[in-house]
## 1
Amino acid sequence: MVPDYRDGTLSPADSKLLANRMSSLKHYDLIVIGFGGVGSATLYHAAKKGWTTLGIDQFGPAHNKGSSHGQTRIIRKAYFEHPNYVPLAEEAFERWDELNKRHRTRPETKPLFEQAGVLQIGRPESEVINGVLRSAKEHDLKLEQFTPEQIHHRLPILNVQPDHIGLFEPEAGFLRVEHCVAAHLAQAKKRGAELISDCTVVDWNASESGLEVRTENGTFRADRLAICAGAWSARFLPGINIELNVISKQQNWYQIDRIEQKYVNDFPVVFIEEDDGEQFYCIPELDSHGMKVCRHTGGDVVEDADGLDRKVDQDDLNRNEAFMDLRLHHSKHRLVHSSTCMYTMSADGHFIIDRHPQHANVAFATGLSGHGFKFTPVLGHRMVEMLDGQCDSQIDFLSLDRFRQV
Ligand SMILES: Cc1cc2nc3c(=O)[nH]c(=O)nc-3n(C[C@H](O)[C@H](O)[C@H](O)COP(=O)(O)OP(=O)(O)OC[C@H]3O[C@@H](n4cnc5c(N)ncnc54)[C@H](O)[C@@H]3O)c2cc1C
């Protein structure tokens, strides 16, 4: 359902041959382990800086086996998770816009971002509404507030509880996730970055003479290392005492029938917190694939990302569809597609981006906790800055320090 981004990249066999040949030859300024969401952005920013850069991934570009697939990702500034994210979200909007301008040189190329607006709904004291209001107040964000009647008037399909309110952020929307990863990689390649797909990194070590990254196809050397391995991160961070829990998440697309077409077309992104704390979101139909409706809460623990069970989780689907029966009335829905993805949860639900405590030339970004894609251009940029010896107090709240014992 998404374009194949393997065009112009090597087959697994050719990748292996190339990796074997390259491994002994070159010394890079930076090696990036994993080129999904964060890794692709890190490669772009490093290549833009003029660093010689190598990205290695166990799969291909914009693949569907990690955490950066499934057509769309929500992007918003009115951040219920914490007001500290708001300046980063503002920067992310600018960085996506910059990437989009470089990427979209022909009118037929699809934009990376769709400004559909985001409507967040819940009781005033819910985590979502309370958090959105706090961020909006601290950062002077302009939001429109709606009663259930006003929401019903604008979106008759939505059945909003009488004691809930809606907060609408018109500038927000969603990103085309695979296109974003592919655009970062294409722009990185244009600036000289080298990519090796279908090559599994086994481990890395740092010595006086620099860094070595050992893969199943050979060993690569560099001055610096960025670990962007998503749900697989823990295996590259031995000895760092952080808790990371991987959970499986299901993404579902539905054909919605029996509603007037205009309600589907005009639909913004909707994020609802129910009174029992369950959170669901709907992303409008894109490219005729149906409306995406998913449960943000819940999900099963994945012991090993290599062994992720990709079968449809019937219990999750039942809860999702019960939500649709309740909240999307005057409609009939039919599941057209599901896909399994992973959230890598940190202990407090906030990202972890930092330098390695023992090796200043190694940086990592992990624990994106199911809300990190929108920030990937910012995280990629900060990874490169950190590896260049710079500090940025804006991301201090995401550093390892918060887990250190006093
Ligand atoms: C269902 C779902 C919905 C989401 N919705 C949103 C949303 O609406 N908005 C939002 O902002 N965020 C959202 N997120 C979160 C966001 O998508 C993720 O946090 C983000 O994409 C993770 O990027 P990453 O680079 O950490 O991981 P990935 O993109 O998975 O990249 C990790 C890469 O490392 C590679 N790798 C791992 N191990 C090795 C190895 N040994 N050798 C070589 N390569 C390796 C993998 O193959 C992979 O390509 C959602 C996530 C999911 C799953």
## 2
Amino acid sequence: MIIYGFKGAHLRTAPLPAGSSCPACATPDALKASVYSRYAHVYWIPFFPFSKSAVALCEHCQQGWEEKTLPAELHPAVRTLKKSTRFPLWNWAGVGVLVLGLAGASIAGRYHERDRLAYLAAPHAGDIYTIHSMGDSTKYSLLKVMSAKGNTVEVAANEYEIDDRSPINELNAPEKYSKETESLTVLDLQIMHNKGQLTDVDRLEE
Ligand SMILES: [Zn+2]
């Protein structure tokens, strides 16, 4: 279960501009207004703010007004104070962490993609290709490069298929590969990669 909800936070209290007088007791320059933010939290981590509210208080007669009951003559000053009060950055903490995490994952993914294309363009003996069989879309298997010469590789097919996008841990054992090999060209590999039949390249020994 995910615990989430809304919380309020006090942002600022400031006197209303000189010259405004209390609608209740008419004392001049005794009014203050406070601005609050309302933000969404997930597990009490602030995620994002979505509204501001304000209350006004007379320090002389202690009369207070919520936004809904605010006398009309105080509206402009309270609105100006609200507008000039920014949501603090910590109200966005969860969104910030998410954005940083996604950016990090995307950079890591791009590095991995670059490695994969470089490995495909210049195969080494020992490279292991993850193969996605097109007939049954949840099955993955491996091809192992036994030797590479010029533009041609000799690959041995793994004799097993499993429901795992990263089958290397389970399937990469010498006795699970076919004793027979077949020849593929670098172009064949690139076409398989473009079609989504060859989904990953691992180079275990450098
Ligand atoms: Zn008053």
